[in-house]
Amino acid sequence: MLYKEFAIEPNQISNLNDLRLIEARFGYEKGSLISTFPASWFDEVLVRLQASNSASQIDKLTDLLRQIQVKALHKYGRDYLMDPWLNAANASHATQPFHRILESSKPAPPIHLENLYELKDEDFDLITHCKRTAEEMSKVAAELLKDAEKITLVDPFATPDKIEYEKTLLKMANITTKPHVEFIIFSEEEKQQSNFELRKNKLSSIQEKFSKNIKLTWCFLDDGRTGYIHKRVLFTSKGGINFDRGFSEPRDIDQKNSPNDLTILTRSQLEKFSSDFNYAQITEPLKICHLWQSDD
After folding, report:
1. Cβ(157)–Cβ(125) below 8 Å
2. Average pLDDT value for residue range 76-93
3. CA 39 from centroid of its chain's CA atoms
4. Per residue in 181-219, pLDDT tens?
5. Number of helices and strands (H, E) in the chain?
6. Can you spell out the DSSP letters for 247-277?
7. Mind listing the pLDDT tens digit for each residue in 217-261?
8. Between helices 55-72 and 41-52, what is the axis angle to 10°?
9. First CA to last CA distance, the chain
10. Residue 148 confidence (pLDDT)
11. Rounded CA gap, 260 and 131, in Å?
12. For 22-31, b where at least 16 C-beta lie within 10 A, e where not — what string?
């Protein structure tokens, strides 16, 4: 997994300094996420903050906690089977490991740490590459894919004509969980190997392989040979990843095992990609040559 999952016992957080440390350390753009474990994690932290701080501070603390909820909390769907919290965390960890567990009673580094302030820089080291297989590329993006209603891929070489791209799209689609999901692909018209009429048939074939809750949109762009469509990125409303070698699964085994370098998008990069690659308002130097949608 590209994103590291941290289990933090709600009683670990009691004041503004704790929240500021979390804000600095955690987030989709940092590759480190806090598991909503238990599902009531946000509410339990809020109750503790309200009990531990003066009334004049509550609004400020609540606002910051809500920002953290958007930027750094992730629902992994773990079962909370028992009290106390540490027993539940250990039981869940035995089935699917957390990256770190923060709880004060039984520290056992490096996994079990006593509090937020015991975390070190190396606890946040990022994975920098994955294999170029559909399964591995989908797995590293799983935290983004699971809860997204709109998933955008930008790759100048992406084409519906090749099974290598289709395999990755189908693997990613299988990870999604929302009742309505739109996959939006941006590729370069100049790189396509067939005319649009033939591509339309192939796109219809790909759509038929998706589950009924998924809509496919494919936008073929011209960037005026500026190189504007260069990076290969996947992004959602919460975060994004740059896949240096794109999303195609090579047929050659050695190439499949070769590294696809990964970089997590910063917040400003995510906002830039979200603005530039929006088919409802494409601006220069980009121009839409063809747009296909599954309800066409």
Report:
1. no
2. 96
3. 20
4. 999 999 999 999 889 999 999 999 999 999 999 999 999
5. 10, 13
6. S---SSHHHHTSEEEEEEPPHHHHHHHHHHS
7. 999 999 999 999 999 999 999 999 999 999 999 999 999 999 999
8. 160
9. 36
10. 97
11. 6
12. beebbbbbbb
HSE toward the beta carbon, residue 111, CA cutoff 13 A: 8
Quote the pLDDT of residue 193: 85
Q: Which two tokens stand for residue 91?
A: 């039981």
Q: How far is CA 195 from CA 104, 123, 176, 192, in A?
A: 63, 50, 31, 8
d(CA 250, CA 78): 34
What's the mean pLDDT when you consider all of the chain? 96
Give the Cα separation of 217 and 282 in Å (integer). 15
> Is 25 in a helix, a strand, or coil?
helix
Kindly state the tokens that stand for 54.
């003066």
Token reading at 21:
């440390």
DSSP string computed for 82-143: SSSHHHHHHHHHHHS--SEEE-SSS-BTTTEESSGGG--GGGGPPP-EEESSHHHHHHHTHH
